[in-house]
Automatic annotation (TrEMBL):
Its cofactor is pyridoxal 5'-phosphate. It comes from the Bacteria. It holds the Pfam family KYNU_C. One of its GO terms (molecular function) is pyridoxal phosphate binding. GO terms for cellular component: cytoplasm. The modification N6-(pyridoxal phosphate)lysine is found at residue 208. Keywords: Hydrolase, Pyridine nucleotide biosynthesis, Pyridoxal phosphate. The lineage of its organism: Bacteria, Pseudomonadati, Pseudomonadota, Alphaproteobacteria, Rhodobacterales. Homodimer. This is Kynureninase. It comes from Paracoccus aestuarii. Its EC number is 3.7.1.3.
Length: 395
């Protein structure tokens, strides 16, 4: 049984703020600052270069990866940390294509995060492949015998729609293709089971629901059946079989270690470890049940109190992640007004107010306050002030 009152107390949440944007950036674990300070004072400061061995910095990407593996239905030794999510998408997609050399079609959907599509477009151009993008509802029908890789984000970043990972992966395999899943809005939000779904590759970030902090490193997972055959185009020093032999020619390390690229971000990984201490207390089935409770309550409340808003997320919770979107013609201004009132969500073009619900620190009181403030600013028109229409660089 997960004690969500206890996990909420483990985060620093500014007084008076209702934070519903953990699907963009999770709040800081209270222990993170001291954990990082200790690492800097006791390890970096005193150990200097010897910290790679004495403090375990070199093996940190695998050790942290093993802790994340439990949250995504993977096994020990199957996940490694490092670099950004786009780099991990590049590695996974290029490795998957290399495993299907007689095919050159990548399939994705229009709800995928644009950055993933940018990466796929670049790889397709470089390798003479084709990127097909269809509507989310048309994915299954678009899985044809010429497909090499199905590349999808499990939970849509705007709508919160959740793809059926086991069913679509099975359909891809029937067609002779591989399945690559982006878990950016899944890891720490829903009950992911990569091995159960028989996926081939998966990637994800740790600064959202996993609360690793801004710029926290990404992770990559390879199914064990591909671990010794995967050959990503991006081959880095840390992914070499013997990095400190300084060979001129690349030899891939065993298993998931070959998916390492550059020097690991030790300070960022240390902050993430503080967050994972909280996650060690969490049962993912309990988390999923709590997520559904919160999102259902929010939808009911908003539809009752805010008739001008239109639901932009699946109504069935089984088809939804841990976020809810509503549409409004002036969504940006409405969200800025909400933020000014201490209810923090975010905006996604063209007109979506997006709210992320993280059971580790959100509760029904957050839902009630968010609904009440949103209803009030829509009713009194206070959102329609000039300062709320002025767009910032980050929306």
């Amino acid at each position: 049984m997960t004690d969500f009152t206890k996990t909420r107390a483990a985060f620093h949440l500014p007084e008076g703020m209702t934070y519903l944007d953990g699907n963009s950036l999770g709040p800081m674990p209270r222990a993170a600052a001291d954990r990082v300070a200790t690492m800097m004072q006791d390890e970096w400061s005193d150990m200097l270069i010897t910290g790679w061995n004495r403090a375990g910095w070199y093996v940190q990407p695998r050790k942290v990866g093993d802790r994340i593996a439990r949250l995504i239905g993977a096994g020990d030794g199957q996940v490694v940390m490092g670099d950004t999510l786009s780099i991990k998408v590049f590695q996974a997609l290029s490795a998957a294509l290399a495993l299907r050399p007689d095919r050159r079609v990548i399939l994705s959907d229009s709800g995928n995060f644009p950055s993933d599509l940018y990466v796929a477009e670049g790889i397709a151009r470089a390798l003479g492949a084709t990127l097909r993008v269809v509507e989310p509802e048309a994915v299954e029908a678009a899985i044809t015998p010429d497909l090499a890789v199905l590349m999808l984000t499990e939970v849509d970043y705007r709508t919160g729609r959740r793809h059926d990972m086991p069913a679509l992966t099975a359909r891809a395999h029937e067609a002779g293709a591989l399945a690559l899943w982006d878990l950016a809005h899944s890891a720490g939000a829903v009950d992911v089971n990569l091995l159960g779904a028989d996926a081939d590759f998966a990637v994800g970030c740790t600064y959202k629901y996993l609360n690793g902090g801004p710029g926290a490193p990404a992770f990559i997972w390879t199914h064990p059946r591909h671990a010794e055959a995967a050959q990503p185009i991006l081959q880095g020093w840390m992914g070499h079989a013997a990095p400190f032999a300084f060979d001129q020619e690349y030899r891939p390390a065993a298993g998931i270690e070959r998916m390492r690229v550059g020097t690991p971000p030790v300070i960022a990984l240390t902050a993430l470890e503080a967050a994972l201490d909280i996650w060690d207390q969490v049962d993912m089935k309990a988390l999923r049940a709590r997520s559904i409770e919160l999102t259902e309550a929010f939808i009911v409340g908003v539809e009752a109190e805010c008739p001008d808003l239109v639901l932009n997320s699946p109504r069935d919770p089984a088809r939804r992640g841990s976020q809810v979107g509503f549409r409004h013609p002036q969504g940006y201004a409405v969200m800025q007004a909400l933020i000014a009132e201490g209810v923090v969500g975010d905006f996604r073009a063209p007109d979506v107010l997006r709210f992320g619900f993280a059971p580790l620190y959100n509760d029904l009181e957050d839902v009630e306050r968010a609904v009440a403030v949103l209803a009030r600013i829509l009713r009194d028109g206070s959102w329609d002030r000039p300062e709320y229409h002025a767009k910032s660089a980050v929306t």
